[in-house]
Design goal:
heterotrimer, A mainly alpha, B alpha/beta, C alpha+beta, B: alpha/beta, Rossmann fold, OB fold (Dihydrolipoamide Acetyltransferase, E2P), 2 domains, 6-stranded mixed β-sheet, 9 helices, 19 strands, 31% strand, C: alpha+beta, 5-stranded antiparallel β-sheet, 20 strands, 32% strand, elongated
Chain lengths: 318, 352, 365
């Protein structure tokens, strides 16, 4: 039975007790995860240090030098200085930002709407569920190709629009700077709404039913219940879902590159595309390292912020 | 033999003290109960006995030996959990054997102990069934058997029956008492239900915020509580504690509405009267005492709780049977001076 | 009018019948307890009154209004859940204010009501604390306040005190009664604790396995149980029920209890009713309506357990089929394992038919 907790009692509950047994299991845990820790060291920590090193140089593979000799073209943060004045970089950042600002909220709202439909049982639920998840299971590059074909001037999208509007529509989606970005965003939304749907459905199902009943008995309408009980209780899950999508969306590449290659021109050049081009075409890897590090910094700050908001949200909810 | 003692044990969690200077000795074969409101330290004491916690100050002794540094596995004290924690996929027999199988005891020895314990608990006939097919009472006995098969020094229970229906609680506590007497083992029991504690315990310890306030048999503590705190904890309805106005005499208790002939004043600050010790009679003019007015009558069948406004105090009286008393009636209250509890400054009891 | 009428109420869950044909009338402003062990159907009945479940058959009427099809938010009932269902992501104040807020009441009125109900339930100091992490005792009051603030004519409480510790239960019982008396609401209270029902209710509906076994005031049910279930369920402890056979003797009609011996003669009115009856009977007497002795007429049994629980002492005698309990005064010392004689007050004895469990004989005056 539930006994008293809280401020009206001076006694503390025993916290995770520091008994001899507990220290032992902590040590065992450390030893068991050692192999994984070593692995992480190699695939994350060392590359990071390498990257830091290279970003302070002008190194390029064209120099003919091995990477550890990069100190020969040491340039002392000049890359970062260049970065600040690189207009193409900032345009790419801006475009990425636009993509996030449009795609993530749309995916969120669509996913939430779909999730509310799936809370209760209905006929054929399992079938619809599988269909809904399919876009997420398509290989992003394949999706890119698919949408490339869909958005052709003589392609299915235009055909459907022609039927709807009654006249022949032959928009050159992927040749128009604005429309190309829109097409790319549509592809992203199609592909990743199911993920939002999944995460938000899990959150929705975790909302305590008895509190919803209590709210109903107190006279709350379905909308009122949604805004005062359901959404507040889902706060932590919502933050996770948004954080995941923002970070992933920031890195958008596969689908987009196959669809437009970053074009027309640089109209759909997001930050990943820019980095890709610098790396494979211009081969100025020192500079690229600097860009990548700068982005890592931005995303880390964002992640820490999101984690803090989530911890706070979990404090408040049941 | 198998005594369990605490000597001046204190246990802290961070800045708050869960158990403070606890000293007591549980005798062999005793049904000892720790009783108090939630968070008074009872469960912490159980954890200290088990060895899940180590004291910050003081010693814990089992069988005369200090066990402070010894872990739970070596102390040979068994615990029966509130949710019983039986393995649902095993039969009752395998459940009971489990602690011994782990300890490399010989097969014949296991069988012998199993049989002995099952016999004492009257569960031989259900050993082949899994817990899912047993009744609640049978399951509880299997859980107890599992604890006892190790032949522990003592077994512990933390509030085992509070989750049951009221009627089942009443029956199960008698059952537990019987089992303990038949098994002949020390049982240390924690509860926050005063009736339960008084019913089962041979001796009990009353706790308040980590301190042991009184130790004794339920009867002794009920008849002679050491303080107003203890007096209020035992007994239902609660003891009536009334202030005694300093300047006036005994006649001025509760506005003169309760007649206690022969009451000695002394330094008494408060008077305690148990509801069953107060007598109620119809009031007539010529009595000389002031009347009390009936506020509420709660019929319980075999007893009736009559709540009465006496002077500025509200007093509850427990009357046997179903007397003809109605709300708003005027009654005369009296009490035998020998049944009165007197409390001095700070609520400490004065000698009777 | 806030009367509640249950007519021919039945509830089935698939193959399982939770409630069989229940008929009950609850008066305006009455405190009615639905009392019974777990699984008797009391919570199911309550859920149907609240509108959380639809009856399989039968009607529920509030006053003259049939509640069929009326959604659960629109019935004007207050409901306190067993585990309170407090909105843990809100403060105490926000919990209390929720109902009026959802119903669009002006802010000044909401504030006024919150302050007033907080005062009544002694929550004033807790108002701005988050509801999460508060003790069960406080949550209990918040749960009640949250419903009470809407001043519903009908208040439903589903075992509200079962999670609360024993000492606090007594306090809360008094507060709930005061609440009901002050607001004159019709209260339906589900519990498995007969003491709680006896203390609080105007009338009690005793239920078992989906059936209503008896309805009456606490004293009516205590003094004149309609069947063995009610006789055993009500009372602390419940009535002693011993199987036996009526037989004529010189002194009058007695009951032969087999191994336990023969009872004293029954009072005439009861004997009359019993003579017209055939078959085995159950001899019932309450533990507090018997005395213990060593000589004379009585039922012989060994003392097995003595419970000294404060104001009373309960002596347990015999075991299993022939278990008897007697409540005695504290001054008497009962010695374990001694054989004593239990002497029931014959004018308080009740007799039941063994096959049907129904009470035989007249009503005690």
């Amino acid at each position: 039975m539930n006994l008293a907790t809280g401020p009206d009692n001076a006694m503390a509950q025993p916290p995770a007790a520091r008994t001899p047994g507990r220290d032992e299991s902590a040590r065992l845990g450390f030893r068991l995860t050692l192999p994984a820790q070593v692995l992480v060291l190699f695939i994350a920590v060392f590359p990071l240090l390498m990257q830091l090193y290279i970003s302070l140089t002008d190194w390029s593979p064209l120099d003919g030098l091995s990477w550890w000799m990069a100190w020969e073209s040491w340039n002392n943060f000049y890359n970062y200085y260049d970065l600040m004045r690189d207009n193409r970089f900032w345009s790419a950042m801006w475009r990425t930002f636009v993509v996030i600002i449009v795609c993530v909220p749309v995916e969120f709202l669509l996913g939430l709407g779909l999730a509310t439909l799936f809370v209760d049982d209905f006929r054929g639920k399992r079938v619809f569920y599988s269909i809904l998840l399919m876009p997420m299971m398509v290989v992003p590059a394949v999706a890119g190709y698919m949408f490339f074909m869909l958005f052709q001037s003589g392609g299915p999208v235009n055909d459907v629009l022609s039927i709807v509007f009654g006249t022949r529509i032959a928009i050159a989606w992927l040749s128009d700077p604005t429309l190309a970005l829109i097409a790319v965003m549509i592809a992203d939304i199609w592909q990743w709404t199911p993920l939002m749907f999944l995460i938000l459905l899990a959150g929705l199902v975790g909302v305590p039913q008895d509190q919803i009943k209590a709210a109903t008995l107190l006279g709350a309408s379905p909308w009122q219940r949604f805004t005062t009980i359901v959404i507040p209780k889902m706060k932590a899950i919502i933050i996770i879902a948004l954080a995941i999508r923002v970070i992933e969306n920031f890195k958008i590449f596969d689908t987009l590159y196959i669809m437009t290659g970053g074009g027309p021109g640089v109209a759909t050049e997001t930050i990943s595309v820019y980095i890709y081009k610098l790396t494979t075409q211009d081969l100025i890897w020192g500079y690229v390292a600097a860009i990548a590090l700068a982005i890592l910094l931005v995303l880390s700050v964002f992640t820490v912020y999101a984690m803090k908001r989530m911890a706070a949200a979990r404090e408040v909810e049941a | 033999m198998a005594e369990i003692s605490f000597r001046n044990v204190t246990k802290r969690y961070g800045t708050s003290v869960a158990v403070r200077e606890a000293s007591f000795t549980v005798q062999d074969n005793e049904f000892f109960c720790f009783f108090g409101p939630p968070l008074s330290g009872k469960s912490t004491i159980l954890r200290l006995i088990l060895g899940l916690e180590t004291p910050d100050v003081g010693e814990i002794l089992i069988d005369g030996k200090t066990v402070n540094g010894i872990g739970p596995a070596e102390r040979n004290v068994a615990m029966v959990f509130q949710n019983l924690a039986l393995f649902l996929h095993m039969t009752a027999r395998d459940n009971i054997r489990f602690p011994l199988a782990e300890r490399k005891v010989t097969e014949t020895e296991i069988e012998r102990r199993l049989d002995e314990v099952a016999g004492k608990l009257h569960i031989r006939h259900i050993l082949h069934k899994p817990p899912g097919q047993l009744s609640g009472g049978e399951r509880q006995r299997v859980a107890i058997a599992r604890a006892l098969v190790r032949d522990p020094v003592a077994y512990l229970m933390d509030d085992p029956i509070s989750a049951l229906d009221a009627r089942l609680r009443e029956e199960t506590r008698v059952e537990l008492k019987r089992i303990q007497r038949e098994m002949g083992k020390t049982l240390i029991y924690v509860t926050h239900d005063q009736e339960e504690a008084m019913s089962v315990a041979d001796r009990m310890a009353i706790m308040e915020q980590g301190l042991i306030r009184q130790i004794g048999t339920p009867r002794d503590i009920y008849d002679s509580p050491a303080s107003t705190y203890v007096a209020r904890l035992l007994g239902s309805p609660m003891m009536n504690i009334l202030p005694l106005a300093p300047e006036k005499g005994a006649a001025e208790l509760a506005g003169g509405a309760i007649a206690i002939p022969g009451l000695v004043r002394g330094d008494t600050a408060e008077i305690g009267l148990r509801p069953e010790d107060i007598k109620v009679a119809a009031w007539t003019e010529g009595d000389g005492s002031r009347p009390a007015r009936v506020f509420q009558v709660e019929p319980l069948g075999g007893y009736t709780v009559v709540t009465v406004d006496a002077g500025a105090s509200r007093v509850r009286v427990l009357v046997r049977g179903q007397p003809d008393i109605k709300p708003e009636a005027l009654v005369a209250l009296s009490c035998d001076a020998a049944r009165v509890h007197r409390f001095g400054a700070k609520g400490a009891a004065m000698p009777r | 009018m806030s009367t509640i009428r249950l007519q021919n109420l039945v509830k089935r869950f698939g193959d399982f019948t939770a409630l069989r044909t229940m008929d009950l009338d609850i008066g305006d402003g009455e405190f009615m307890a639905l009392l019974g062990p777990s699984g008797c159907g009391k919570s199911t009945t309550m859920n149907m009154i609240a509108g959380m479940e639809e009856p399989s058959e039968g009607r529920i009427l509030f006053g003259d209004r049939d509640m069929a099809g009326v959604a659960m938010g629109r019935r004007g009932v207050g409901f306190v859940f067993q585990n309170y269902a407090i909105f843990t992501h809100m403060s105490v104040r926000q919990n209390l204010a929720y109902g009026p807020r959802m119903q669009g009441k002006p802010k000044s009125e909401i504030d006024r009501r919150v302050v007033s109900i907080a005062k009544f339930l002694q929550l004033t100091t807790m108002l701005d604390r988050p509801a999460k992490g508060l003790s069960v005792n406080i949550l209990q009051r918040v749960a009640i306040g949250r419903s009470a603030i809407l001043e519903p004519a009908i208040f439903l409480l589903d075992e509200p005190l079962s999670n609360v510790d024993a000492a606090f239960r007594a306090v809360m019982r008094t507060e709930l009664k005061q609440l009901q008396r002050e607001f004159r609401q019709t209260m339906v209270y589900v519990t498995h604790d007969q003491l709680e029902a006896m203390t609080m209710a105007d009338r009690i509906a005793v239920m078992d396995h989906g059936e209503l076994r008896q309805v009456g005031t606490p004293l009516e049910i205590y003094n004149n149980p309609a069947n063995v279930f009610v006789a055993r369920f009500i009372g602390s402890p419940g009535m002693n029920l011993l199987p036996g056979q009526p037989s004529e003797s010189d002194g009058g009609l007695v009951v032969d209890l087999g191994l336990l011996g023969v009872t004293a003669p029954l009072p005439e009115p009861l004997a009359q009713a019993l003579r017209g009856h055939s078959g085995e009977v159950v001899f019932g007497f309450r533990p507090e309506q018997a005395t213990l002795g060593v000589a004379g007429r009585g039922i012989s049994a060994p003392v097995t357990v003595v419970e000294r629980i404060g104001a009373r002492t309960i002596v347990h005698l015999g075991e299993d089929e022939t278990a008897i309990k007697v409540v005695i005064d504290n001054e008497i010392d009962a010695v374990l394992d001694a054989a004593v004689l239990v002497m029931p007050q014959m004018d308080a004895v009740r007799i039941f038919d063994r096959a049907t469990g129904k009470a035989i004989g007249g009503i005690r005056g």
